[in-house]
Amino acid sequence: MTDTPADRPPDPTQPVPPAGAGYGGYPTARPRRNGMGTAALVLGILALVLVVLIFFSPLGAFLGLLAVIFGIVGILRANRGEADNRGQAVAGLVTGAVALVVGLFLAIGIGTFFAANVNEFRQFGRCMDNARGDQAREACARQLSRDLER
Q1: Predicted model pTM
Q2: Which of 108, 114, 120, 141 is deepest in the core (most CB within 10 A)?
Q3: How far does Cα 67 stand from its chain's mean position?
């Protein structure tokens, strides 16, 4: 058997070089910053879910706006080579934009509906306050339904 450098035990008389010494060091690259693209995607998906739950559409629209902003920043970082998740940033941008548009549309539509029918809802509230029993409450609901159909 031949003594190759890998087979030889370390010589105790020789100083031990520090770890990595003697080898060409790797160039230090800046770490990839993928947080914006990931945040855009998560916020975009969450915004779409909240928009579908109609009651939360204003919150969904706000989160959609944040997803659009984070998506744009993530795409810019990917273009500069600072991030490698361009697809996530684009997906976050798209889902955020869809949630923003749908959320704004629903919020404006629902707000307009309630503003146009505020008197009918006030009358319904007074009727329910004065209602005694289930039949009276059902009559209030039928009256509101008739008022809203006009």
Answers
A1: 0.67
A2: 120
A3: 6
